[in-house]
Amino acid sequence: MTIMIDEINSQPKVLEKVLAKSRKGVRDLCREVRERKIELIYIAARGTSDHAAVYAKYILEIHAGIPVAFAAPSVITVYGGKPGLQNALVIGISQSGKAEDVLEVLRHAGRQGSLTAAITNYEDSPMAKEAAYHFSCMAGEEKSVAATKTFTAQMMIMAMIAAGLSGGGELMGELETVPAKISEFLADFGVPDRIVNKYKDMQECFVLARGTNYSIALEGALKIQETCYVRAKAYAMSDFYHGPLALLDTSIPVFLIAPGGLTDEGNMEMAGVLSGYGIETTAVTNDAGIKGMVSETIWVPPGLSDFTSPFVTAAAMQLFACKLSLAKGLNPDNPRNIKKVTITR
Ligand code: AGP
Asked: Which fold has domain 183-327?
């Protein structure tokens, strides 16, 4: 047993806690967003936390109708730029709450009187203290260098903010189903050893997805890079057609994150293209149509929406990376060259 597996398995409990205990803070923040007539959400984050921001962009723009922009912190920290954020909600996301460049974005926003929020796993972290609102990941200490439970907690907090701003209870109702869906995946589906062993010697791969699951393509690739030292590269399917398609080679496997939902048509089209070029493809899906077009399937439970499926596909990719790392004889909890907290300025 590895710490990473324990932390993957703890996600349903962490998310139940986040769902139960973040409501008041989310309500207060959403009230202030409405009162201030906020017109832009500006997010700063690094690594895995940045991928939670990608999920947040989709869910906030679709449900709250507010455009979401990503900060390039060096604009402020290196170039001394002063982007005007007076009418923005500025959110910093960081597991540790110590990301210095993200903190600097929050400080810059604070100096302009912008509304600020931080999502971190530590109440006493510099970012938690800096922002007007703090949301805790409530994940307990995350010991594995590869972030898992803090990632889905960050996504859940952002999704709750989207639900709060949308004013409707429907999205919140969907989010409530997430802990049980992850539990169902972990208990009844999982990642078959046979698939893991097949990719034991993999050196390179592509991870593709469309829409809300693009965040999980990015995060799945990062998990595979850091725990398995495999050159995994993520693309939004739509971008993949615009050049990277030329990289397709029968020696490079593709992972297609394609749970059922509104992206089905695009997913099927990509599965067809990959199959046409003879590419070894593994789909993370609950769609029997996709299964017929790919070499391997990591099944996820049915009944997921475009907004809930990323939580389950995240667990699937975390588990795949962890098991692949072990199959390669590596220690997923302690990847070479990196520490749990990485400070960039
Ligand atoms: C996560 O698996 C990585 N080890 C890494 O990208 C991490 O997410 C990154 O260092 C960000 O840290 P933070 O969330 O504490 O700011």
From this structure: Rossmann fold (3.40.50)
